Input
Amino acid sequence: MKVENPVALRFILQDELYLLGTDKKLYEHSTIPEPVMEQPQPEIKAQAATPTIEQPIPEFKTQVVIPVIEQIVPEVKTPVVSFNYLGQNLKRFLILVNYPELEFIAEAHLTALQNILKRKDLEINDVAILNMATYSAVKLDELISFFKPAKLLLLGQTALPQGIAPLVLNNPKILNGYTALYSFGFKEMMDSVENKKAFWEQMKAL
Output
């Protein structure tokens, strides 16, 4: 058996050994190497990366405030029509005439009209005498709205207002709650007994 290290022989052979001079020197200077202890390598654990939580940056929105401009709508008012008439219309009796050169009616014709009204137990203040020469553009609806007549007497063709329904001469007609009589003007009756009589026959029933 070949032993490389003489020192190892003492562990193999239990009896005393006698070393030679050359071997003795090796024995004296040889030492049993200490077993090499393997140092455990530190376990390197991969550290999980901490997730980065991104904080949402609040979005600041600038609210555009549009000023509300209140539009002022002008109030459209229907102009109030006023009329210059003779009488006080106490009995809601409207009489339309036409005298371009006068404010109301000719004096002689007014006297004749007053006599006719007296025969019907009416006074001048019971009626309203309106000269249509001054109000030629006025419509019938405006007259009715203002005077609210129960009776309407139209003396002559030129006294007919705009918008009135066709009327037959000396033939009374009921229109929207009032009775209308279209007859001759005083200029046509002053020199005609026949025209006066035809007018009076219808005027009595009005």
About this structure: The radius of gyration is 68 Å.
